[in-house]
Each structure stands twice: as C-alpha cells, then as structure tokens.
Design a protein that fits this description.
With 397 residues, the chain is α/β, with parallel strands linked by helices. Strands 5-4-13-14-15-12-16 form a 7-stranded mixed sheet, with helices on both faces. A 6-stranded mixed sheet has the order 7-2-1-11-18-17. It has a 3-stranded antiparallel sheet with strand order 8-9-10. Bound molecules: flavin-adenine dinucleotide (FAD).
C-alpha cells in the first residue's frame, strides 16, 4: 500500500513506523517546522510501553524519562497527604511494563529518529488544507500540490482538519474547564517537587499535577480549573502568571513557586461527539483527531499508540482485496469500546478531582485514604487500562 499520514505527532509517527515495518510505503505531512519546540511533560503508561517494546523503543524511552515510584494524593488546601498509590517496580511487575514521564519533544524525537531510520519521508512545513477521495484512492492537498494514496490517515490532533472534512457535523463542546501548563527549573523550587513521584493536589473545583522530567532538571506542572469563561483549544497560547496566582494561591505547597514561572500556557478542554465509525471510505482517523480524551487519566498519547498498532494489525490480518475498506471496520470495532470506557473514566476522574461539596469531598478523600492501605486494590481498579489494550500484560514476545 501507499499510505499518506497527516500529522507527525505521537500517533502519526507511531503508525508510520508500524506500517513501514509491515512493508508499506509511507509519507508524512506535518504543518510545523522541524525545529519547533512544543509541549511540556507527557505520560506513557504500561499499555503503550508494551507496544513500543515490540519496536525496540522501550530502552530509548527509559533512557530519557522519569520513572515515578508513586502518586501522592494531597489535599491542595491544607497540604496534607491523603494517600499514596504505588507505581515504580510494583506497577511494572503487575502490568509487565513501567510508567514513564518525559518531555513531549523527547518522545517525538525518539519516534522521529526511528521513522527516519526506516527511510520514511517527513514533509515539514506542509500543512494539509484539503482531502478528497474516490473509490480507489484518497488525495492529500497542500497549497500547491496534490498527492494520491491508497489510504490517508488523519493523525492531526485535537483540532483535526481531516475529521472536519470527513465528519463536518462534529462540533466540539467546551467543558467549562481549562488547563495551565508550565515547566520550572527544579533548582528554583522546593524539594517536595523533586521527588520521584507524581504529586496530585486536589482542591475545590480544581486540581494540580506535578512531576519531574529531563533527569529532574525541570518540574512539569499542570493546573486544571472549572471556569465559565470560554477558552480556545490551542497548545501554544501564552497567558500571564497572574492567572495562576489568582486561581491557585490557596494551594499552600505552591508558596513561592508561581514567581518562578517564566512561560505559562493555557488550554481549553473540550468534548467531541464519539463516533462509532473511525473512517470514511479511504480516509482513517486515529489518536486525538478521532477521540480527544480529557487529561485526567493521562491516556492521550498511549491511546494514539494503541490505535496505531490495532490499525496496522487489522491491515495485516484482515485486508481483503475485494472489500478493501473492510479492515477499517475491524479496526474501529476493536478500538471503540475500550476508548469509550477510557473517555468515560477520565470524565469521572474530572468530577472526583474537582468535588466542591464538603460532604462528598470528605467521603472521596476518606475512601482514598482507606484504599491507600490496600495498594494492590487501588492498582487493580485501573488494571483494565494498564494490563489491557492490544498487547496485554500476559503477552510474551
Ligand atoms: C503542539 C502540541 C503540544 C502538546 N503538548 C502536550 C503536552 O505538553 N502534554 C501532553 O500530555 N500532551 C501534549 N500534546 C497532546 C498530545 O501530544 C496528544 O494528546 C497525544 O499524544 C495524542 O497524539 P496525536 O498524534 O493524536 O496528536 P498530536 O500529538 O497532537 O499530533 C498532531 C500533529 O498533527 C499536526 N497537524 C495538525 N494539523 C495539521 C495539518 N492540517 N497538516 C499537517 N499537520 C497537521 C500537528 O502539528 C501535530 O504535530 C500536545 C500536542 C501538540 C500538537
């Protein structure tokens, strides 16, 4: 097959190298320039690591990533620890792969280097601005050029142009929540943030997450808050630190931290209609372009990697020359229920993390404290995510 991919993000690069390994010809179009530095920290959980292991990428990731030993849940308002959820070696053993946190640029570089080693061409500064298709091929249109492919994959992220073209009626809904993201050099802030832990600070209608990346040289911070004010979904929008001070100065662990912020980005959180079909004829969607997921379970990148793997497996085992798009139905059917459940679980976490009612909050924090005494139980709760997926924890290579 000759396959065109729109987007050199996590899903586009993963699917490119997996398709190439199956012997297909692949070309990628990316709107950004090669040198652009975007994003902050990103998480990969064991369900994605087991897939990347099959492509000899686990070691590269482990060499640049942080390996959190646990998640400490903390009451943001009084700074007291509620409970600890074990990760590290315990989770690695249970799920047959670890959890990693790294700079998004490092993940993109690792995938990009592998893609280039495989001889795949990435066309940078090549924004796709239209797509058309007929029964035998799909066409990618750039400003002055058109390219024909057997199939086109839309891996162009949350604001996907490909999705808009094939499902024009899918309108995003603002969830009345925004996320702030920043990186702070670790030598500038209190030691609590430097531990090999993810810190989860829970508050009234808001929460914050921190973890070290880049060999602990930086701490990655994400702050989410409920708001009535509409805000765009754009990873690159900068805002003044005063917005963080206004909303999070009552989180006592952050005393003295906000003045160290040199660049703060703000991002509106949206929900999209969840379609049963992830393709139209010869144009296919994957990752955020298909099913953006709220960040409350940190599954965005991992699900894009799972999509890529299942798409390639469906092409490998289910392609039928007489019915050339049949394998796409199989791809969708294999992914639909799992992604739906993960989307719902992320939404549920959003509600729990932002509880305002004092009684409900007390019950939630108290139950977190109790399950903290049974670490295996708390890991078991999300075992279907971390042990599951297309390469389960039982898989032996
Ligand atoms: C700039 C940026 C910064 C991010 N930072 C973080 C972060 O710090 N932490 C985090 O957890 N997640 C971050 N994400 C999101 C995260 O990468 C995704 O949620 C997840 O990895 C799923 O990957 P994806 O491949 O579906 O989409 P993405 O990784 O978002 O990749 C989509 C790619 O498509 C490209 N693209 C979009 N439209 C076009 C077009 N018309 N033509 C050609 N190319 C196009 C984009 O430039 C991008 O490279 C970021 C995404 C982007 C785009």
């Amino acid at each position: 097959m000759n396959i065109g991919i729109v987007g050199a993000g996590v899903g586009g690069l993963s699917s490119a190298l997996m398709l190439k390994k199956l012997g297909h010809k692949v070309t990628i179009f990316e709107k950004q320039s090669k040198l652009i530095s975007s994003g902050v920290g990103i998480q990969l959980s064991s369900n994605a690591i087991r897939i990347l292991r099959l492509f000899d990428l686990e070691e590269n990731i482990a060499s640049v990533a942080n390996f959190p030993l646990m998640v400490d849940c903390i009451n943001g308002h009084n700074g007291k620890k509620i409970t600890s959820i074990p990760l590290g070696k315990i989770a690695e053993k249970k799920f047959n792969a670890g959890f990693y946190q790294l700079h998004r640029n490092d993940l993109i570089s690792i995938l990009k280097n592998k893609v280039e080693d495989f001889g795949i061409k990435i066309n940078y500064e090549s924004p796709v601005n239209n797509l058309t298709q007929n029964s035998s091929n799909a066409k990618i249109q750039l400003l002055n050029q058109n390219y024909n492919y057997d199939f086109v994959i839309g891996a162009d992220g949350v604001n996907s142009l490909v999705r808009k073209k094939i499902f024009p009626n899918h309108k995003p809904r603002f969830l009345k929540q925004v996320a702030f993201r920043t990186l702070i050099p670790s030598k500038k802030i209190p030691d609590i943030f430097l531990q090999d832990k993810t810190l989860l600070f829970l508050g009234n209608g808001k929460h914050a997450v921190s973890y070290p990346i880049k060999d602990k040289a930086f701490i990655n911070f994400v702050f989410c808050i409920n708001t009535e004010n509409f805000y765009e979904q754009d990873w690159t929008r900068k805002v003044p630190t005063s917005e963080l001070i206004k909303n999070f100065s009552d989180f006592i662990a952050f005393e003295g931290v906000f003045e160290k912020v040199s660049s703060l980005k703000k991002w509106g959180l949206f929900e999209y209609p969840f379609n049963k079909s992830w393709y139209k004829n010869r144009i296919i969607l994957l990752g955020d372009a298909c099913h953006p997921i709220l960040p409350y379970l940190a599954q965005g990148a991992s699900q894009a990697i799972e999509d890529s793997y299942v798409l390639c497996q469906s092409l490998k085992y289910n392609f039928d020359e007489l019915h050339p798009t049949k394998f796409l139905k199989i791809y969708t059917n294999k992914r639909y229920l799992r992604v739906k459940k993960i989307k719902q679980a992320s939404k549920n976490n959003a509600i729990l993390y932002h509880l305002k009612n004092p009684l409900l909050k007390f019950v939630f924090h108290f139950s977190l404290k109790i399950v903290g005494y049974f670490p295996n139980f708390i890991l078991q709760r999300f075992s279907w995510i971390y042990s599951g997926g297309p390469v389960t924890s039982k898989f032996k290579s």
